[in-house]
Amino acid sequence: MFKGIFITLEGLDGSGKTTQIKRLAKWLALHGLETVLTRQPGGTPTGDRIRALLLDSRGTGIAPMTEMALMFADRAQAIAEVILPALESGKVVLCDRFTDSTEAYQGGGRELGSEPVLALHKLICGNLQPDLTLLLLTDLEPSLERARNRNQRIDENIGPDENRFELEQEAFHRRVWEKYHEIAAREPNRVILIEGELSIDKVHERIVEAVAKLLKEKQVG
Ligand code: TYD
Q1: What is the distance in A from the centroid of ligand 1 to the CA of 145?
Q2: Closest residue (by CA) to atom 1 of ligand 1?
Q3: What is the distance between the alpha carbons of residues 47 and 183, in angstroms, rounded to a whole number?
Q4: Average pLDDT over residues 15-37
Q5: What CA–CA distance (Å, rounded) separates 92 from 86?
Q6: What is the CATH number of the domain that holds 27?
Q7: How far away, in angstroms, is 18 Cα from ligand 1 center?
Q8: Is residue 13 over pLDDT 50?
Q9: How many domains is the chain built from?
Q10: Given a cut of 70, is residue 164 above it in pLDDT?
Protein backbone atom coordinates (compact mmCIF):
# COMPACT_ATOMS: atom_id res chain seq x y z
CA MET A 1 0.00 0.00 0.00
CA PHE A 2 1.23 3.47 -0.89
CA LYS A 3 0.67 6.60 1.12
CA GLY A 4 -0.39 8.56 -1.94
CA ILE A 5 -3.52 8.52 -4.04
CA PHE A 6 -3.66 7.52 -7.68
CA ILE A 7 -6.44 9.04 -9.81
CA THR A 8 -6.80 8.59 -13.58
CA LEU A 9 -8.97 10.41 -16.11
CA GLU A 10 -10.29 8.59 -19.15
CA GLY A 11 -12.54 9.28 -22.10
CA LEU A 12 -12.68 9.73 -25.85
CA ASP A 13 -10.58 12.35 -27.61
CA GLY A 14 -12.23 15.73 -27.13
CA SER A 15 -14.13 14.67 -24.00
CA GLY A 16 -12.81 17.63 -22.00
CA LYS A 17 -10.44 15.59 -19.85
CA THR A 18 -7.66 18.13 -20.02
CA THR A 19 -9.87 20.98 -18.80
CA GLN A 20 -11.22 18.83 -16.00
CA ILE A 21 -7.86 17.51 -14.85
CA LYS A 22 -6.54 21.08 -14.52
CA ARG A 23 -9.59 22.14 -12.52
CA LEU A 24 -9.27 19.12 -10.27
CA ALA A 25 -5.57 19.87 -9.70
CA LYS A 26 -6.53 23.40 -8.59
CA TRP A 27 -9.22 22.03 -6.27
CA LEU A 28 -6.74 19.60 -4.68
CA ALA A 29 -4.19 22.39 -4.23
CA LEU A 30 -6.85 24.51 -2.49
CA HIS A 31 -7.32 21.60 -0.11
CA GLY A 32 -3.60 21.57 0.62
CA LEU A 33 -2.82 18.36 -1.24
CA GLU A 34 0.39 18.07 -3.17
CA THR A 35 -0.45 16.91 -6.67
CA VAL A 36 1.56 15.53 -9.57
CA LEU A 37 -0.08 15.97 -12.96
CA THR A 38 0.99 13.65 -15.75
CA ARG A 39 -0.32 12.19 -19.01
CA GLN A 40 0.05 9.16 -21.23
CA PRO A 41 1.58 8.69 -23.65
CA GLY A 42 4.33 11.09 -22.57
CA GLY A 43 5.11 12.58 -19.20
CA THR A 44 8.80 11.56 -19.07
CA PRO A 45 11.64 12.39 -21.48
CA THR A 46 11.64 8.79 -22.77
CA GLY A 47 7.84 8.82 -22.87
CA ASP A 48 7.82 12.04 -24.89
CA ARG A 49 10.01 10.35 -27.49
CA ILE A 50 7.67 7.35 -27.56
CA ARG A 51 4.71 9.74 -27.88
CA ALA A 52 6.35 11.49 -30.83
CA LEU A 53 6.97 8.11 -32.45
CA LEU A 54 3.33 7.12 -31.96
CA LEU A 55 1.93 10.39 -33.26
CA ASP A 56 4.38 10.51 -36.19
CA SER A 57 3.37 7.01 -37.20
CA ARG A 58 -0.32 7.90 -37.40
CA GLY A 59 -1.34 7.15 -40.92
CA THR A 60 1.84 5.21 -41.74
CA GLY A 61 0.29 1.91 -40.83
CA ILE A 62 1.77 1.16 -37.42
CA ALA A 63 0.79 -2.41 -36.50
CA PRO A 64 -1.73 -2.65 -33.63
CA MET A 65 0.66 -4.85 -31.61
CA THR A 66 3.45 -2.29 -32.06
CA GLU A 67 1.13 0.45 -30.91
CA MET A 68 0.10 -1.53 -27.83
CA ALA A 69 3.72 -2.41 -26.99
CA LEU A 70 4.76 1.24 -27.28
CA MET A 71 1.90 2.33 -24.99
CA PHE A 72 3.15 -0.11 -22.37
CA ALA A 73 6.79 0.89 -22.86
CA ASP A 74 5.74 4.49 -22.21
CA ARG A 75 3.69 3.46 -19.17
CA ALA A 76 6.48 1.38 -17.61
CA GLN A 77 8.76 4.41 -17.73
CA ALA A 78 6.10 6.73 -16.29
CA ILE A 79 5.43 4.33 -13.43
CA ALA A 80 9.12 4.00 -12.58
CA GLU A 81 10.02 7.65 -13.02
CA VAL A 82 6.94 9.61 -11.97
CA ILE A 83 4.01 7.64 -10.59
CA LEU A 84 5.59 5.34 -8.00
CA PRO A 85 7.98 7.92 -6.55
CA ALA A 86 5.08 10.37 -6.12
CA LEU A 87 2.80 7.76 -4.54
CA GLU A 88 5.58 6.61 -2.23
CA SER A 89 6.07 10.15 -1.01
CA GLY A 90 2.35 10.54 -0.28
CA LYS A 91 1.32 12.77 -3.18
CA VAL A 92 -1.84 12.68 -5.26
CA VAL A 93 -1.08 11.55 -8.80
CA LEU A 94 -3.49 12.75 -11.49
CA CYS A 95 -2.87 10.88 -14.71
CA ASP A 96 -4.51 11.83 -18.02
CA ARG A 97 -5.11 8.29 -19.45
CA PHE A 98 -3.71 4.99 -18.18
CA THR A 99 -4.21 1.29 -19.01
CA ASP A 100 -7.97 1.70 -19.55
CA SER A 101 -7.02 3.75 -22.64
CA THR A 102 -4.99 0.83 -23.98
CA GLU A 103 -7.86 -1.55 -23.29
CA ALA A 104 -10.37 0.81 -24.97
CA TYR A 105 -8.24 1.92 -27.97
CA GLN A 106 -6.01 -1.07 -28.72
CA GLY A 107 -8.17 -3.76 -27.09
CA GLY A 108 -11.50 -2.35 -28.35
CA GLY A 109 -10.69 0.05 -31.20
CA ARG A 110 -7.93 -2.04 -32.78
CA GLU A 111 -9.73 -5.25 -31.81
CA LEU A 112 -6.82 -6.85 -29.95
CA GLY A 113 -9.22 -7.72 -27.11
CA SER A 114 -8.97 -7.05 -23.39
CA GLU A 115 -7.02 -10.17 -22.53
CA PRO A 116 -3.56 -9.21 -23.87
CA VAL A 117 -3.92 -5.71 -22.42
CA LEU A 118 -4.74 -6.98 -18.94
CA ALA A 119 -1.98 -9.61 -19.15
CA LEU A 120 0.60 -7.00 -20.18
CA HIS A 121 -0.63 -4.69 -17.45
CA LYS A 122 0.12 -7.42 -14.89
CA LEU A 123 3.52 -8.18 -16.35
CA ILE A 124 4.76 -4.69 -17.18
CA CYS A 125 2.93 -2.48 -14.70
CA GLY A 126 2.87 -4.85 -11.71
CA ASN A 127 -0.92 -4.61 -12.04
CA LEU A 128 -0.86 -1.13 -10.51
CA GLN A 129 -4.49 -0.03 -10.13
CA PRO A 130 -5.75 3.53 -9.73
CA ASP A 131 -7.68 4.25 -6.53
CA LEU A 132 -10.21 6.05 -8.68
CA THR A 133 -10.84 6.42 -12.41
CA LEU A 134 -13.01 9.24 -13.70
CA LEU A 135 -14.44 8.20 -17.05
CA LEU A 136 -15.96 11.03 -19.07
CA LEU A 137 -18.21 9.58 -21.72
CA THR A 138 -20.55 11.77 -23.66
CA ASP A 139 -23.33 10.18 -25.71
CA LEU A 140 -22.00 8.38 -28.75
CA GLU A 141 -23.72 10.35 -31.53
CA PRO A 142 -22.68 13.86 -30.41
CA SER A 143 -19.16 12.63 -29.81
CA LEU A 144 -19.02 11.16 -33.34
CA GLU A 145 -20.26 14.50 -34.63
CA ARG A 146 -17.53 16.40 -32.77
CA ALA A 147 -14.87 14.03 -34.11
CA ARG A 148 -16.22 14.55 -37.64
CA ASN A 149 -16.04 18.31 -37.22
CA ARG A 150 -12.53 18.13 -35.80
CA ASN A 151 -11.38 16.05 -38.72
CA GLN A 152 -13.06 18.39 -41.18
CA ARG A 153 -11.13 21.29 -39.65
CA ILE A 154 -7.90 19.29 -39.96
CA ASP A 155 -8.80 18.44 -43.58
CA GLU A 156 -9.16 22.13 -44.37
CA ASN A 157 -5.68 22.75 -43.00
CA ILE A 158 -3.73 19.87 -44.44
CA GLY A 159 -5.76 18.64 -47.34
CA PRO A 160 -8.60 16.20 -47.73
CA ASP A 161 -6.55 13.01 -48.03
CA GLU A 162 -5.30 13.05 -44.45
CA ASN A 163 -7.26 12.41 -41.30
CA ARG A 164 -10.52 11.92 -43.08
CA PHE A 165 -13.21 10.68 -40.75
CA GLU A 166 -13.97 7.61 -42.78
CA LEU A 167 -16.44 4.90 -41.93
CA GLU A 168 -13.63 2.80 -40.53
CA GLN A 169 -12.74 5.54 -38.09
CA GLU A 170 -16.36 5.88 -37.05
CA ALA A 171 -16.53 2.15 -36.29
CA PHE A 172 -13.25 2.47 -34.38
CA HIS A 173 -14.67 5.30 -32.28
CA ARG A 174 -17.75 3.24 -31.53
CA ARG A 175 -15.67 0.25 -30.42
CA VAL A 176 -13.60 2.44 -28.09
CA TRP A 177 -16.79 3.87 -26.57
CA GLU A 178 -18.26 0.38 -26.09
CA LYS A 179 -15.09 -0.97 -24.48
CA TYR A 180 -15.03 1.94 -22.03
CA HIS A 181 -18.60 1.05 -21.04
CA GLU A 182 -17.57 -2.57 -20.58
CA ILE A 183 -14.69 -1.55 -18.27
CA ALA A 184 -17.02 0.66 -16.21
CA ALA A 185 -19.53 -2.17 -15.82
CA ARG A 186 -16.78 -4.63 -14.85
CA GLU A 187 -15.16 -2.39 -12.24
CA PRO A 188 -17.86 -0.23 -10.67
CA ASN A 189 -15.90 0.31 -7.47
CA ARG A 190 -12.93 1.89 -9.22
CA VAL A 191 -14.53 3.56 -12.24
CA ILE A 192 -16.92 6.49 -11.87
CA LEU A 193 -18.76 6.91 -15.13
CA ILE A 194 -19.75 10.51 -15.87
CA GLU A 195 -22.12 10.25 -18.79
CA GLY A 196 -24.12 12.44 -21.07
CA GLU A 197 -23.96 15.96 -22.40
CA LEU A 198 -23.12 17.85 -19.21
CA SER A 199 -21.70 21.34 -18.75
CA ILE A 200 -18.05 21.79 -17.73
CA ASP A 201 -19.21 22.96 -14.28
CA LYS A 202 -21.51 19.99 -13.80
CA VAL A 203 -18.76 17.51 -14.74
CA HIS A 204 -16.39 19.26 -12.32
CA GLU A 205 -19.02 18.98 -9.59
CA ARG A 206 -19.36 15.23 -10.17
CA ILE A 207 -15.59 14.79 -10.18
CA VAL A 208 -15.15 16.71 -6.94
CA GLU A 209 -17.91 14.68 -5.33
CA ALA A 210 -16.16 11.39 -6.22
CA VAL A 211 -12.72 12.66 -5.18
CA ALA A 212 -13.99 14.07 -1.86
CA LYS A 213 -15.54 10.68 -1.08
CA LEU A 214 -12.24 8.94 -1.82
CA LEU A 215 -10.27 11.39 0.34
CA LYS A 216 -12.69 10.80 3.18
CA GLU A 217 -12.34 7.03 2.84
CA LYS A 218 -8.57 7.38 2.85
CA GLN A 219 -8.76 9.94 5.64
CA VAL A 220 -6.79 12.54 3.74
CA GLY A 221 -7.31 16.30 3.58
P1 TYD B 1 -3.66 13.06 -26.92
O2 TYD B 1 -3.28 14.14 -27.88
O3 TYD B 1 -3.01 13.04 -25.59
O4 TYD B 1 -5.23 13.04 -26.82
P5 TYD B 1 -6.20 13.28 -25.61
O6 TYD B 1 -6.06 14.73 -25.25
O7 TYD B 1 -7.53 12.90 -26.17
O8 TYD B 1 -5.76 12.35 -24.49
O9 TYD B 1 -3.43 11.72 -27.68
C10 TYD B 1 -3.47 10.53 -27.08
C11 TYD B 1 -4.05 9.56 -28.08
O12 TYD B 1 -3.49 8.28 -27.84
C13 TYD B 1 -5.54 9.43 -27.96
O14 TYD B 1 -6.13 9.34 -29.24
C15 TYD B 1 -5.73 8.11 -27.26
C16 TYD B 1 -4.52 7.35 -27.69
N17 TYD B 1 -4.08 6.32 -26.72
C18 TYD B 1 -4.17 4.99 -27.10
O19 TYD B 1 -4.59 4.66 -28.21
N20 TYD B 1 -3.76 4.03 -26.19
C21 TYD B 1 -3.26 4.34 -24.96
O22 TYD B 1 -2.88 3.45 -24.18
C23 TYD B 1 -3.17 5.74 -24.61
C24 TYD B 1 -2.60 6.13 -23.26
C25 TYD B 1 -3.58 6.68 -25.53
Answers
A1: 19
A2: 13
A3: 25
A4: 95
A5: 7
A6: 3.40.50.300
A7: 12
A8: yes
A9: 1
A10: no
